[in-house]
Amino acid sequence: MMKIMPVDQFRPEDFKTPPIQAGNEIEAIVDEIIANVRANGDQALKEYAAKFDKAELNSVLVSEEEMAEAFAACDAEFIEILKQARDNIEAFHKRQVRSSFIVSEEDGRVMGQRIIPLKRVGLYVPGGTAAYPSSVLMDAVPPKLAGVKEIVMATPPKKDGRVNPAILCAAKIAGVTKIVKAGGAQAIAALAYGTESVPAVDKIVGPGNVFVATAKRRVYGIVDIDMIAGPSEILVLADGKSNPAFVAADLLSQAEHDKLSSAILVTDSEALAKQVQAEVEKQVKLLPREEIARVSIDNNGKIIVANSLDQGIEIANLIAPEHLEICVDEPFAYLPRIESAGSVFLGRNVPEALGDYWAGPNHTLPTSGTARFSSPLSVDDFVKKSQFLYYSTDALKAAKDNIVSFAKREGLNGHANSVAIRFGEQV
Question: CA–CA separation, 44 vs 50, rounded Å?
Fold first, then answer.
């Protein structure tokens, strides 16, 4: 049952679920897997598919024939839903695309910034208890818009050696160029270092279990990564006029993800707190994933009764949740005061699932309170910036004395001399 607590018992640190952490034993296993994939490439991936996925693979890559079979297996209605969702995601993320700029001054100075897409990125898509084609769309559309030419996706095969058809359909629709039948740390190693069939990428994005998270930590620096994600989170800020059934349903939409997921209600109404608590107990029994949701709600579900919605906003900012719903009549009045949240859902008719599947903003979001300093996945994550400058002789001469003085004050006479020598002077 969700615990109701008065605001004077609130401590922000109690609401921060840390990112996935591994012990020494798991780290040793991951290190061994990475070393094996680096040394033995495709053969190591096939061996791990047999060991962990019980799948015998002839090839580690999904073939065109398998892709065609996947489209045949998915019904036309679902294909159309995927396409419409992709279009919505594209429409939102197109606005994030940046342009290079150049500044040219009449005195001989030219400088600017270039926006350069990464050459190749890797997407990790988990298998496990559920398949998430929505995450394929969310992770693949932004790099495509950024101008990335190659998008390599890794996902574990089923026992028959094939990949979930819905995952393959989403990948094709989103523009993925190559699909690798590999999960776990071995997939991360293949993406980071490459094999005979898998090209090495520049960046890896996507969530995974403790082995995936540990492998991402290990390869960071060889490649870039998006984040080390923690369990899913939702915080609903609701006033006393909110429908308790709606609020309970929204809380359970995150609780069913994982036993470690957290669902939090912050309200200024003690009556609503009790109604939601009862409604959660009623609805959780109806979920196919009741066992998972039950553990999440019992261990991590909390209801905070604040003195006011203003105080509720302060609490939300301290928790910095992955998903924040603001269930009030005039939600836009509160939006400017939200400082730390991955994605904000405004109003009484905007369940978090709207963002997960359909609306367009990304659902790959900062967790574990990292919304204080990090952002949702975006086009920016798949480009790099390079700056340039040019000075004519006269422009450098005009700046010479100031540069020489600055460098000498830092004790770097070599820096100073590299400017002075161009004008026949020695520092």
Answer: 10
The angle formed by the CA atoms of residues 186, 73 and 67, to the nearest 5 degrees, is 50
| 155 contacts 165 by C-beta, under 8 angstroms | no
Domain 24-225: CATH superfamily, name plus number: Nitrogenase molybdenum iron protein domain (3.40.50.1980)
Other CB atoms closer than 10 Å to residue 354's CB: what's the count?
Answer: 13
Q: What is the pLDDT of residues 2-42, one digit of tens each?
A: 999 989 888 887 777 666 666 889 999 999 999 999 999 99
Q: 213, 89 in Cβ contact below 8 A?
A: no
Q: Where are the beta strands (DSSP E) in 2-48?
A: 3-6
Q: CA angle at residue 253 from 252 to 256, to 5 degrees?
A: 75
User: Which residues are the active-site residues?
Assistant: 322-323
Cβ neighbours of residue 286 closer than 8 Å, sequence gap 6 or more:
none
- Bridge-based pairing of strands 109-117 and 101-104 is antiparallel
Domain 3-18+230-360: CATH superfamily, name plus number: Nitrogenase molybdenum iron protein domain (3.40.50.1980)
Residue 148 phi, psi dihedral angles, 5° rounding? -65, 130
Q: Hey, do 3-18+230-360 and 24-225 end up sharing a CATH topology, with the first three levels equal?
A: yes
Q: What is the residue extent of each domain of the chain?
A: 3-18+230-360, 24-225, 392-423
Who contacts 295 (Cβ-Cβ below 8 Å, separation ≥6)?
Answer: 259
Q: How many residues does the chain have?
A: 427
Q: Does 129 score more than 60 pLDDT? A: no
